[in-house]
Amino acid sequence: MRKGDVKRAYQFSSKSKIVGIHMEWVSHTMLTRKELRNFINEQKLDKRRVSVREDGQRYKF
């Protein structure tokens, strides 16, 4: 996904949680964790709804 895709998903479903994973793998290098975090901040997206996972980090829903 690219930045615009993340924002569209965020806007489309107000009850969804979006988690960026596998950010720096070779086949997923379109967007880095840092770039996505910056985008989330710039767009003032609710960090309870959209987040970027670190390697090895786990979430429980």
Task: Explain this structure.
The chain is an alpha+beta fold. The chain contains two helices and two strands, in the order H-E-H-E. Strands 1-2 form a two-stranded parallel sheet. It is globular.
Report strand %: 5-15%
Which regions contain 5 or more consecutive residues with pLDDT less than 50?
Answer: none
What structural category arises from helix and sheet content? Answer: alpha+beta
**Total number of β-strand segments?**
2
As a percent range, the share of helical residues equals: 25-40%
Total of helices: 2
- Give the overall silhouette: globular
Largest sheet: 2 strands, parallel
Mean pLDDT: 84
The Cα radius of gyration reads: 11 Å
Provide a compact summary of the structure:
By secondary structure, this protein is an alpha+beta fold. The chain has helices spanning 3-12, 33-42; strands spanning 18-20, 50-52.
Give the arrangement of secondary structure elements.
Blueprint: H1 3-12, E1 18-20, H2 33-42, E2 50-52
Parallel strand pairs: 1-2
Search tags:
globular, alpha+beta, 33% helix, 2 helices
